[in-house]
């Protein structure tokens, strides 16, 4: 074999190897399609007071919980307000929410969201007082306090007012300090489960095969369409965290069922790439009914005691525009289906009815999910 022939064979081999290493455009990393058991956020919630508002707070007569909370806070500070008529409008009762990240340590900070609970007009310029944030178990995990930043605003005058965004909600960046940790020793575990964000049997098996090919021994087992169990192999140089770090960069091709998602309220239609249609003919007609009211006034004759009456005049016009019968061939792709239906010049809401009719006829190989 000549040097030129060897060079050509080498280049062909390298091209084939590159083709096997380059992931397809629709492939994804394992870390982007699964959640790891125990690595999760925890939701926190608390009730507090925002002070310093410029007259846009709760009306104490309309929000008795704000008045009670304000009195209780002042009493804890040694101020007796029992029997007094409190009329301040610079205080608002709010609900404070936050997400406690996984493995968050004591002393670290997290962002919090603030939302008005009473009839406050705006939280602009307000300051959240010390607010305990509790988890679902009733324990306090963080303490929130700070200046509230809002995205909207409100301005009003004697004859007009304007509101932009939602001025009764806000956010405090790094506004809470974590006081309690959620104990979960991931590194000491011998096994962990991977939960698929979009459950599918094919995807679950592909993930297990990719992991086992990397490790070189049976390490991952597809339990069901939503779970892959990962076990630390014997002789592995590291703990379960090291194993997860090694496999989360693996690239697999997620599979999906043929599905069409329809939101009838907004007329939104989303179709997956696996949607297929058998041979079917589609026709759609538009029926337009126009009703015009032109009432006429009937005047009585002069020198009579008659009264002027209004006589109704109604015109009804019905116009029906029939479109041509379109043939959708068997096994067409999603793009061909969309192009064919768009060629009929139909609206999204008519398209919803057509898709449901094709499904009823048994010609649509896809699941229709109505939101």
TrEMBL record:
InterPro entries in alphabetical order: Flag_FlgI
Subcellular location as annotated: Bacterial flagellum basal body
Key word Signal present: yes
Signal peptide: 1-27
Keyword Signal: yes
Keywords from the named record: Bacterial flagellum, Cell projection, Cilium, Flagellum, Periplasm, Signal
Highest taxon, organism lineage: Bacteria
Listed Pfam families: FlgI
Subunit composition and interactions: The basal body constitutes a major portion of the flagellar organelle and consists of four rings (L,P,S, and M) mounted on a central rod.
Function: Assembles around the rod to form the L-ring and probably protects the motor/basal body from shearing forces during rotation.
PANTHER family membership: FLAGELLAR P-RING PERIPLASMIC PROTEIN FLGI, FLAGELLAR P-RING PROTEIN
NCBIfam families in the cross-refs: PRK05303.1
UniProt family annotation: Belongs to the FlgI family.
Record-given protein name: Flagellar P-ring protein
């Amino acid at each position: 074999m000549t040097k030129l022939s060897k060079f050509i064979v080498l280049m062909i081999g390298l091209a084939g190897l590159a083709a096997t290493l380059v992931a397809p455009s629709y492939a994804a990393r394992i870390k982007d399609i699964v959640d790891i058991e125990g690595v999760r956020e925890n939701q926190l919630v608390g009730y507090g007071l925002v002070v310093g508002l410029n007259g846009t707070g709760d009306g104490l007569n309309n929000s008795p919980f704000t008045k009670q909370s304000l009195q209780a806070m002042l009493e804890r500070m040694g101020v007796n307000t029992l029997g007094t008529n409190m009329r301040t409008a610079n205080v608002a009762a709010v609900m404070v929410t936050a997400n406690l990240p996984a493995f968050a340590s004591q002393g670290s900070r997290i962002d919090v969201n603030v939302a008005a609970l009473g009839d406050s007009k705006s939280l602009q310029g307000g300051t959240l007082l010390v607010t305990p944030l509790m988890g679902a178990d009733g324990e306090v995990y963080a303490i929130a306090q700070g200046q509230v930043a809002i995205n909207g605003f409100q301005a009003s005058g004697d004859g007009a007012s304007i509101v932009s965004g939602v001025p009764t909600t806000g956010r405090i960046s790094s506004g809470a300090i974590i006081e309690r940790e959620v104990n979960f020793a991931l590194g000491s575990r011998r096994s962990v489960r991977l939960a698929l964000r979009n459950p599918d049997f094919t995807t679950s098996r592909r993930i297990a095969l990719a992991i086992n090919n990397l490790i070189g021994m049976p390490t991952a087992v597809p339990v069901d369409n939503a779970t892959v169990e990962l076990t630390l192999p014997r002789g592995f140089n590291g703990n379960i965290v090291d194993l997860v770090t090694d496999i989360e960069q693996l690239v697999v091709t997620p599979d999906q069922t043929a599905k069409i998602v329809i939101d009838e309220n907004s007329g939104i239609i989303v179709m997956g790439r696996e949607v297929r249609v058998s041979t079917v003919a589609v026709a759609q007609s538009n029926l337009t009914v126009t009703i015009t009211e032109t009432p006429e006034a009937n005047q009585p004759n002069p020198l009579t005691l008659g009264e002027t009456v209004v006589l109704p005049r109604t015109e009804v016009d019905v116009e029906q525009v029939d479109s041509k019968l379109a043939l959708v061939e068997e096994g067409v792709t999603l793009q061909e289906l969309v192009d064919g239906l768009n060629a009929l010049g139909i609206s999204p809401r008519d398209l919803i009815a057509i898709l449901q009719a094709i499904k009823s006829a048994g010609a649509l190989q896809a699941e229709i999910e109505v939101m």
